[in-house]
Amino acid sequence: MPNPFKPTAGATPPLLVGRRPILEAFQESIDDGPGAPYLLQLMTGARGVGKTVMLNELGDVATRNGWIVIHATAGPGMLDRIARRASTYRQELGSRDRGPETTSWRITTPVGELGRESQTSGSELRIWSDELADLLDVLEQHGTGVCVTVDEIHSLDLGQMQILAGDVQMLVREGRRISLIMAGLPRAVEELLAGDSRPTTFLRRAERPLLADVPVAEVADSFLQIITDADRSISDELAMECAQATGGYPFMIQLVGYHVWRQAGRGPITEEHVTAGVAAAQSRLGALVHEPALADLSAVDRTFLVMMARDDEPSRLGDIAGRMGKDSRYASVYRDRLLKAGMIRAAGHGLVDFEAPYLREYLREHAAHLVAGQDDGGQS
Ligand SMILES: Nc1ncnc2c1ncn2[C@@H]1O[C@H](COP(=O)(O)OP(=O)(O)O)[C@@H](O)[C@H]1O
Ligand SMILES: [Mg+2]
Q1: Do 122 and 222 fall within a single domain?
Q2: d(Cα 71, Cα 199) in Å, to the nearest integer?
């Protein structure tokens, strides 16, 4: 029996823990049709909490309802890529190529073409919404629609964001069966929406599920179920011990499950397997989640975090500044950067805490190496 756990970013877990309400709300909105609230969602959550997995799961719900799903990741040319996928699907569905007739249909639509034309300029930008509208035309005959998911929305540039939002808003106004589900890091998404242009106003009205850690008791149940289904055995107590080691953090669920399973070989899972498996999971979490996240930061950002790790509880900004040998204003610049990067979160007045589990321990263990690069230019 192969190891059922999937400790890889974006990989579908053997059992999706704690997310049923989100899936149900989406199904309900698909049933309710155009304009239903959960067709437009902006999901946020820390790294490894399961955003990409949820986009896939919601996409599967849409697919089961006969919708076409287009998954995209934010980045240059994204709208163009969505357009090409839409065009391919439309051709597969057997609709003739877009011709003059389609164009004239467009002109007779009350709000369609005019609005789209007025908001878009470059060719990539016009094509994407036209392609989407054409695909929606075809699907309308089947009573279904299109679900577009956009991952890593925090790295979408403002221009693309405005086109995306403006065009989807237009399709919603036309009463089309269109669903847009986006996911990104909380603070960065907040900033993206902070502007006061009209399309972002539209996005601010999206449902905003915040993906958080899942209940530890449900994690324990999932371990029992997955392991039993695979004809192996684990006691209730050990399943709970594994679950507690995950802290309910989804990435850690897969890591602990994977390594405990691996330790056990073929026989029943014992206390020793759990101890060794949890230790292996913790060190892999560092390599898979913390290390790449820290590598994206500047040396001063990392120093700030290492200074935080000296505390056993949420840190005071003033203390961190003192440890860095700087004033609080200087430190607050880096606090804001780290909030935006999803590394830390506000924990009450003047306090900050780590966002990811075991980050504190990881930083303590690797402090020397992380602060060493101090002079590689920390301003950016
Ligand atoms: N609800 C969940 N239950 C169990 N495991 C999950 C859940 N959500 C995500 N995972 C696992 O967590 C890891 C990270 O998920 P991912 O979607 O890549 O996170 P994010 O996109 O938020 O960084 C993957 O290994 C995935 O299988
Ligand atoms: Mg992801």
Answers
A1: no
A2: 21
